[in-house]
Amino acid sequence: MNIKTEYRPNVAMIIVSSNYPEIKEIFIAERNDLANVWQFPQGGIDKGEEVKEALFREMEEEIGTKDAVIVAEYPAWISYDFPTRIANKMKPYKGQTQRYFLMKLSENAKINLETEHPEFCAHKFVSPEEILDHTAHFKKAVYEQVINYFKEEELL
After folding, report:
1. What pLDDT sits at residue 72?
2. For the chain, does the N or the C end have fewer beta carbons within 10 angstroms?
3. Superfamily of domain 9-152
């Protein structure tokens, strides 16, 4: 993994419901520290941790389940810069570099946002076309790029 050190290595997941591929609805969660800001679950990759290991660990830490399968992986790392107010809290990082995965929840998966360190207060499923209506401005370009890639691959 060759990553610029000023970017925090991170995994991010576009989670579709167990009704996929018949119904293409994507999980988003509202941050508990920012009202009306919704995002995909994501989290840092610990030193020495494999990307897919981090993926399932973060999924369980953030939404209370890892009962899912990987459908596809975005083929490259994708980075974004934090807004100044966030960058000041995240030093020494100026942003994140992420590996995105398209994940399908298993039929029996149970979402539980009341995890040990809750990051979200609500969740819902929306169409791929609605995603950008809910996300933070500084993540929109990344979300659009990844969603469009999976659409072009006929996965969304």
Report:
1. 98
2. N
3. Nucleoside Triphosphate Pyrophosphohydrolase (3.90.79.10)
Residues 6+ apart with CB under 8 A from 101: 11, 12, 13, 14, 55, 70, 71, 72, 73, 74
Q: How many CB atoms lie within 10 A of CB 89?
A: 8
pLDDT digits (tens, 9 = 90+) for 128-147: 999 999 888 889 999 999 99
**Residue recorded with tokens 């660990």:** 57
Q: What is the pLDDT of residues 4-21, one digit of tens each?
A: 568 999 999 999 999 999
Alpha helix segments (H runs only) across the chain? 51-63, 84-87, 140-152
Q: Which amino acid appears at position 8 of this protein?
A: R
pTM score: 0.92
Which pLDDT score, from 0 to 100, does residue 105 have? 98
Best CA proximity match to 81, nearest among 126, 155, 136, 150: 136
b (16+ CB within 10 A) / e for 90-126: eeebbbbbbbbbbbbbeeebeeebeeeeebbeeeebe
